[in-house]
Amino acid sequence: MMAQLTGSNGKVFAFEPDPDNFSLLSKHIHLNGFNHIIEAVPFAVSSSSGKAMFQKGSSSSTGKLSSSSEEEGLEVEMVSLDDFVYRMGYPQPDFVKIDVEGFEGEVLNGASRVLAQTQPIILGEIHNLQAAGKVLRKLNETDYLILNVERDFELVNNLEFGSHWLAYPKQKGIFLQR
Fold first, then answer.
1. By C-alpha distance, which of 165, 177, 77 is closest to 126?
2. Is the residue at 93 inside a domain?
3. How many CA atoms lie within 13 A of 57 on its CB side?
4. Which residue of 1, 93, 169, 175 shows the fewest CB atoms closer than 10 Å?
């Protein structure tokens, strides 16, 4: 869907640290003819770059970074969005979708420069209340409006477990028609 919305001149970077999911993602990009638009990136996105432990979930869509280096799992490469853009030289994003099973705050903390300079629109999901607090702090600190997707994009000051949110930079202004 993001590739279709991006159009032929845009670029989508799809991050997937799980080698099995990465293989499936790459295959589907090719099967759907989106090689020129989507680039699969075999990294987890977090607050810093380096290595981390990745826990496979009960399904292919529920894996996540381990909260402790003591836990077992797969060792994966990790990158912050700031490093991806400013150190590795990838384009600045206009839009960021985050679904990282409770590590949303870490992704945003690793994107401080991107949030300040590029001010992308961000779509995410809340997987636990600790993540909700981190997301709220970072978005408030970087001057974003937070809209609840399930409530017809109502402006909110808190995030609920399981909710989907859209963050929009206050500086860009926003027009919502009801």
1. 165
2. yes
3. 12
4. 175
Calculated CA dihedral for residues 152, 140, 170, 160, nearest 10 degrees: 0
Residue 163's pLDDT band, with cuts at 50, 70 and 90, is: confident
Question: What angle (nearest 5°) sits at the alpha carbon of residue 2, between those of residues 178 and 73?
Answer: 115
Quick one: pLDDT at residue 94?
94
Q: Look up tokens 């990790």; give the residue.
A: 78
Q: How far is CA 91 from CA 83, 85, 124, 138, 159, in A?
A: 11, 6, 21, 22, 29
Per the structure, the count of domains in the chain is 1
Query: pTM (2 decimals)?
Result: 0.89
pLDDT for 68: 61
Domain extent, residue 136, equals 43-172
How far is residue 58's CA from residue 87's CA, in Å, rounded to a whole number?
Answer: 34
Q: Is residue 85 part of a domain?
A: yes
Q: What are phi and psi of 35, to 5 degrees?
A: -55, -35
Does the pLDDT value for residue 63 go beyond 90? no
